[in-house]
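tokens incoming
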């Protein structure tokens, strides 16, 4: 198949969406398919990139590191026709999403869409949350998704949200895969502990994400005093950059735990596996994740996870919590972290981890996506006219 993936976000912009697209592209190509990325221009992008089409763009409002296309409909359609694309797969509900939808309609080919982001958790970034409301998110999501031939939901939570928005299109729950070959429990000569001046046996709790309000890193920091009472040599290593860093550093200072918390800033993708590998537990208190690739990356590096409980994370920790601990409330984080720091891994866990990782590998991801392409190409769109037009 010749597949066109349309996204406002792609490398060198680092995000879960970029990583998901790259994994899908490489896995599909490994199956023999041809994949072309249609995305935005980026000042940091290389001059020439194979099979990547960049359309004129500008920085997007409060997200200065993200971009939105300002033109390119004609160019995208012309190139798509030259490439003789078989299917359009959009990954955004904004500029490239609408361009991809237009190309699919003009070419008469299937339009598949992946709904990545739980936008209601990000409204505070736009005019302090005073301009856009949840009803606006519902309207945009309903309008866009009900015009697609099929929608990929990375988790049951996303599907439930879309059905709540009155999205009637065919929805397939397909968890985003991970290129497991890039997340092996190998240090590759880069000793993170030495770099951070930590002993070989010193407990490391790893947080790895954008430093922003919706990631709820503050809750992890607030759990550290209780952790340190039982494990005074434990260290919280916070990897990532973002708008909340100053606020988080201030909280660390006020709690008098400066020596126990390390902020590393952003790290390049090839450095990340070393942090997972040398950590004893990976923690995320975020409730905004539609999928949570970092959980999978941690598991691939044989690192236990502590996360908020939901339908998706329940599938990651094993039938009896062998691979990690889930919490419902922020106040439970400290005890969950201590439980994992004090646990001893048994050989039986390896088989459970292998089964979980096989289900979310890049290869499985690509096979499921291709199967969904075919399903959507052969079914009649289930949206009635009055439902399709029901936007506001």
């Amino acid at each position: 198949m010749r597949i066109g993936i349309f996204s406002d976000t792609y490398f060198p912009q680092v995000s879960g969406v970029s990583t998901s697209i790259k994994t899908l592209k490489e896995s599909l190509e490994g199956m023999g398919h041809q994949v072309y990325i249609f995305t935005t221009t980026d000042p940091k992008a290389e001059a020439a990139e194979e099979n990547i089409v960049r359309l004129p763009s500008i920085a997007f409002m409060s997200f200065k590191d993200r971009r939105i296309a300002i033109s390119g409909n004609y160019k995208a359609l012309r190139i798509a026709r030259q490439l003789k694309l078989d299917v359009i797969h959009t990954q955004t509900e904004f500029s490239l999403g609408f361009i991809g939808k237009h190309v699919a309609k003009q070419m008469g080919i299937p339009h598949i869409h992946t709904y990545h982001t739980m936008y209601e958790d990000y409204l505070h970034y736009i005019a302090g949350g005073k301009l856009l409301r949840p009803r606006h998110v519902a309207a945009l999501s309903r309008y866009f998704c009900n015009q697609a031939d099929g929608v990929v939901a990375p988790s049951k939570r996303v599907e439930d949200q879309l059905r709540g928005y009155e999205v009637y299109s065919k929805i397939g729950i397909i968890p985003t895969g991970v290129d497991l070959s890039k997340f092996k429990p190998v240090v590759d000569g880069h000793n993170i502990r030495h770099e951070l001046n930590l002993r070989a046996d010193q407990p490391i709790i790893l947080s790895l994400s954008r430093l922003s309000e919706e990631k709820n890193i503050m809750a992890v920091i607030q759990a550290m005093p209780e952790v340190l009472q039982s494990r005074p040599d434990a260290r919280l290593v916070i990897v990532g950059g973002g708008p909340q860093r100053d606020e988080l550093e201030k909280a660390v200072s006020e709690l008098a735990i400066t020596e126990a918390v390390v902020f590393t800033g952003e790290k390049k993708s090839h450095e990340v596996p070393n942090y997972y590998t040398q950590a004893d537990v990976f923690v995320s208190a975020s409730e905004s994740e539609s999928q949570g690739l970092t959980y999978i990356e941690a598991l691939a590096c044989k690192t236990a996870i502590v996360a908020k409980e939901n339908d998706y994370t329940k599938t990651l920790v094993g039938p009896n919590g062998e691979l990690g601990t889930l919490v419902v409330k922020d106040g439970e984080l400290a005890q969950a972290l201590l439980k994992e720091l004090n646990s001893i891994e048994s050989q039986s866990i390896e088989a459970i981890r292998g089964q979980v990782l096989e289900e979310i590998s890049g290869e499985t991801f690509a096979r499921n996506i291709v199967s969904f392409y075919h399903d959507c190409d052969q079914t009649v769109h289930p949206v009635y006219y009055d439902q399709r037009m029901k936007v506001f």
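note: The CA atoms of residues 283 and 306 lie 5 Å apart.
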